[in-house]
Specification:
The chain starts with a helix and ends with a helix. The chain has 2 helices and 13 strands; from the N terminus they run αβββββββββββββα. It has a 5-stranded antiparallel sheet with strand order 3-5-11-8-9, with no helix packed on it. The chain has a single domain, classed as Jelly Rolls, CATH 2.60.120. It is of the alpha+beta class. The radius of gyration is 22 Å and the shape is globular. The structure holds calcium ion (4 copies). The site of one calcium ion has 6 residues, from loops.
């Protein structure tokens, strides 16, 4: 009986997404993993000064409180490319939002958003006004269902709404509401072991074959 209960509990624990949480007022089924993990590139435009030019401030969960600056500003004609490494952005198959950009500060600002699988060819998602900025990518031309997107590019567009040192849109965080496993998952240790022993087997076989 105890075993049965334990089995049921185990099945439930596996079946229910463990980290589905409301973050910054938006539900992210993948929890903290949903958010961008690394900076691919950042070009600060004019009107960005010290304290507002650290692109790492846009990684992870939103943490802007108003008291301290935890966002990066784009500046005039600036852009920011973020990368998902432990997850990826994908489609939901319906008209619900798939991507959310946490833009912050007193000025609610415009930006252009694009997504990519390789950081070479980009799909223009369109111009978005921050706060809130939930985006449904399914109806966008060029987006194919189930594709795993690894990169999000946020670029400044006119009008110029705020001045030095925090010019233009200020990015606190970028999260994939429709979050999928990463594009190139790191192999599990057991898989590595299997691959390793497989290679060892091939080498041993070739050595043996050479001898004969
Ligand atoms: Ca992530
Ligand atoms: Ca702003
Ligand atoms: Ca969608
Ligand atoms: Ca932040």
């Amino acid at each position: 009986m105890k075993k049965t209960i334990l089995t049921i509990l185990f099945i439930l624990a596996v079946a229910i997404p463990a980290h589905a949480v409301l973050i910054g007022g938006v539900e992210f089924p993948d929890g903290v993993d949903s958010f961008a993990d690394s900076v691919y590139s950042y070009f600060p435009g004019d009107n960005v000064g010290p304290g507002y030019d650290d692109p790492n401030a846009a990684l992870g969960t939103p943490d802007y409180s108003g008291a301290n600056n935890t966002a990066v500003s784009l500046g005039i004609n600036g852009y920011l490319i973020l990368q998902f490494t432990d997850n990826s952005l994908t489609t939901s198959g319906d008209n619900t939002a798939d991507l959310h950009i946490f833009e912050i500060g007193g000025a609610i600002e415009w930006m252009n958003v694009a997504i990519s699988t390789d950081a070479l060819s980009w799909i223009d998602i369109g111009n978005v006004l921050g706060q809130p900025s939930s985006i449904d990518i399914d109806p966008i031309a060029g987006v194919t269902p189930g594709t795993l997107y690894k990169y999000v590019r946020i670029s400044d567009i006119s009008p110029n709404q705020s001045g030095y040192p925090y010019g233009e849109a200020d990015i606190d965080a970028v999260g994939a509401i429709s979050s999928a496993p990463p594009v190139n998952p790191v192999p599990e240790p057991s898989t590595m072991l299997l691959l390793g022993s497989g290679l060892f087997g091939v080498v041993a076989f070739r050595k043996k074959f050479k001898k004969n």
